[in-house]
Amino acid sequence: MTTDDHSDPMMNLSACTLPTVQRPTRLAEFDAFFADSVRTARRADSTRLELTLTDAFDAESVGRDLAARESTCCSFFTFTFTFEDTPAGTVMRIEAPVAYVEVLDALTERARAAVAGAGR
User: What pTM did the predictor assign?
Assistant: First the structure.
């Protein structure tokens, strides 16, 4: 399975205001972030994805920048970052309303594929 298998719900989303021609670039940014900066991708429940970030010095800042830009075009997503004083470290949470679970499903599968491809 490739990450391309999980692009359709994200590429054809009418609720997203990002111009269609820019969507492949944004997906590539997410894929790179997942591969470079995410240690684990866990679905906490049907509407929440939890990404445990790597210890890379810029993992959180890259995630925050991507989250801020994504929030401007896909306002149904909620992004939060917390630092847990456990081995988990920084966790990025992505939440979506039930109406957009299919989009979160696609994002989850892209994250899992990238993390697996990175050997984590």
Answer: 0.86
Residues 59, 45 contacting (CB under 8 angstroms): no
Both tokens of residue 120?
């984590």
Condensed to tens digits (0 to 9), the pLDDT of residues 44-70 reads: 999 999 999 998 889 999 999 999 999
Please give the Cα distance from 112 to 40 (Å, whole number).
Answer: 8
Locate the domains of the chain by residue range.
Answer: 3-117
Beta bridge partners, 92, equal 51, 81
Question: Residue 65 and residue 58: Cα distance in Å, rounded?
Answer: 11
Q: Which of 8, 18, 7 is nearest to 72 (CA)?
A: 18
Burial 38-76 (b: 16+ CB within 10 A, else e): bbebeeeeebbbbbbbbeeeebbebbeebbeebeebbee
Name the nearest CA neighbour of 83 among 53, 110, 61, 45.
Answer: 53
Q: For residue 30, give every residue at least 6 positions away whose Cβ sits within 8 Å of its Cβ, in sequence order, or none.
A: 66, 107, 110, 111
